[in-house]
Amino acid sequence: MRVRFKWAHRSLPKLRTTPEVVHAIMKVAKDVAQSAGDGYETADETGHTRARGRVYTATADAMRNESKNSSMLRALNNKGV
Q1: Is 33 contained in some domain?
Q2: Reduced to 3 states, what is the DSSP secondary structure of residue 40?
Q3: Tens-place pLDDT, residues 8-45
Q4: Tell me: the pLDDT tens digits for 42-80?
Q5: How far is residue 14's CA from residue 51's CA, in Å, rounded to a whole number?
Q6: For the chain: N or C, fewer Cβ within 10 A?
Q7: What's the CA gap between 12 and 44, in Å, rounded?
Q8: 72 near 40, Cβ under 8 Å?
Q9: Per the domain annotation, does 71 fall within a domain?
Q10: Which residues contact 1 (CB under 8 A, 6 or more apart)?
């Protein structure tokens, strides 16, 4: 027996901004920041249609490390994202 599924496209923005989704996104962002090393921080941004997690360099040492080693990209690849 085949199961049919129909997306409720108007509900997707509501789903993508729920607290549970924001929490899951921020968990990944915090894991990436921790793996990248000291001086990396996270922030969440929730817009009208989706939530975003951001990892950024907060110190000069982290900025230098990022420019030389691409630590955030390596941490993201190690997390399998």
Answers
A1: yes
A2: strand
A3: 888 899 999 999 999 999 999 999 999 999 999 999 99
A4: 999 999 999 999 999 999 999 999 999 999 999 989 877
A5: 10
A6: N
A7: 19
A8: yes
A9: yes
A10: none
